[in-house]
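Why run this: before we spend reagent on co-expression, it is cheaper to look at a predicted model of the complex and decide which construct boundaries make sense. The entries below are exactly what would go into the expression plan.
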Amino acid sequence: MKSSVTDPFDNTIDDPTKPVELVLGDHDLTSVTELVSDIVLERKTPLAWYAAFAFTTGLTGILFLMIGYLFVKGVGVWGLNNPVSWGWAIVNFVFWVGIGHAGTLISAILFLLRQKWRTGINRFAEAMTIFAVICAGIFPGIHVGRVWVVYWLFPIPNYQAMWPNFRSPLLWDVFAVGTYATVSLLFWYMGMVPDLATFRDRAKGRIQQIVYGVLSLGWNGSHRHWHRYEKAYLLLAGLATPLVLSVHSVVSFDFATAQLPGWHTTIFPPYFVAGAVFSGFAMVGTLLIPARQMFGLKSIITLHHLENMNKIILATGSMVGFAYATEFFIAWYGGNPNESFAFINRAFGPYAWAYWIMVTCNVITPQLFWSKKIRTNIPVMWVMYIFVNIGMWFERFVITVSSLSRDFLPSAWAYYDPTIVDILTFVGSFGLFFTLILLFIRFAPMVAMAEVKTIMPIADAHSGERRSVGDYHGDIPKDVRDGGAR
Amino acid sequence: MSNDGKLYGLLIEFESASLLMAAAAKCRDEGFKNWDVHTPFPVHGMDDAMGIRGTRLPFIVLVSGFAGLGIATLMQWWMNAVDYQFIISGKPLFGIPANVPIMFELTVLLSAFAAFFGMWILNGLPRWYHPLFTNRRFRRATQDRYFIVVEAKDPKFNLEKTRNFMADLGGSVVEEVNESAED
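The model came back. Tokens follow.
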């Protein structure tokens, strides 16, 4: 390992007397613009991109093939049985929605907390959010059985003069995920407009000029526009913050409001949200590490950014571990025999293998991030992210399947096995996710250029002095505030 | 650039944010109304340097948020307690707790729409043609340069006087920008 003291580009050393360098390598506004926009506008698409794209579109094809098969044959092609009437579809739904949470956390919550390092990674994470929510939305859509009446999920007048039941958490889910997808999309697109305008002004091809020109809405960098833009950005961040916390809470209500042992617990909302952020950061890291390597973005997405993400993974992973322990404690302390049985059954019953995969990946391995050496070692952290991705999928599997397969009445117990259609549908959803990510990398500004520029020392209008606290939004330097009286 | 055609305004370029900030404060003190600063990123403290007052966007968002809350409440009450009654385990036909999640979601949804669309409408965007886009130098406004533009329609605008005033701001050469590239 490199020595962290002698490496001049190491910005992970904690020195409280100096602000952390978030953009390395003597960048100025011009070079940052070039670095990010040349990936799309100038550089030839790498061969690896085409290879990856061919592979992921193939997987996407499998996804749609499996969905088509499901529509023709019905949900019997899945491994569902009685009592396990919720299988991989719901597991995958919760998994994908959870992944999305990291994007909103980075773009909204870290924005409100004035975490400047978010600017390097927020665009990528937001894109990932939207694509993950698209993948998530597929599963409840296809698992309803009679897909031709899927519009009954929405309060749309129909021939039976029937309205949906607003007391059902499944309907809350429709509204929560729908609102989340919409707001994330607005937030992402709005953040991208100034960067699309940069693309428009740098594009050489006629088609590129027209497409980026239309998408950038005629943005011209006017400060009167920036003024309202920043206000809108702040408002959207403020709205997205409770929203992201509500989405996985509502998802957890699907389970928590049921009477089933192992589901019927009040700890679910916070525990699901922590798990969602945990899994989402792991997925952001899984994608960012190859992307920054391949496109030479190491000076903008620095080791400091990755280390911060690892700290969040460590924190949320510990919360998840604590929640697992609390569940067990309450199962014993609550004195309900069915509840105690459900938890003993999870850890030592027929699904013990899944439970221990979950515990290993979510509770044990993330604790290695206490070590700074591991936290700043890129290959090691990438492997850890993969572990977390696996562990968090298994968490949802354990919750859903182990509780359903053995409920109150032993004569009703059954073991659940997925079919090949279940497996291929899930694998196919990864194909869709990665296809969208590849398209995003190829055609959109992967890094929020305008936002990165604001955190560079060169952006400070008061040359010489460096502000060590605060962000560009909202806080006005004192000298301007006093001197700039109207 | 040709000088014939209707004049849109005068353009001046700056190298750094601190030069721009000082120049913007001078333009504000000169009393211009139709002028603007164009920057690749939001320059911190520029609101005060330009003398821009707050926007009414937050108010619009607040009103829309309440509208969302009202719509959600009325919708759930009408659909489940009046038009199609769900009679389940003796629960009241309309109870706030069960309706809170959707009240919250629609409040957020309508507020977000207001923030997003309200911002674009107040900014007068999308507007795909702008006289400034005819200037090649101005393309760097979204990349790495800072500009001040004083429009010809400003009541205090006088071609010679304003040009001389702008030339002293500490930027590059003052350029004229026409309404359209062709005329």
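The longest strand of chain B covers residues 7-14. Chain B has two domains: 7-53+130-178, 57-122. Bring this page to Monday's planning discussion.
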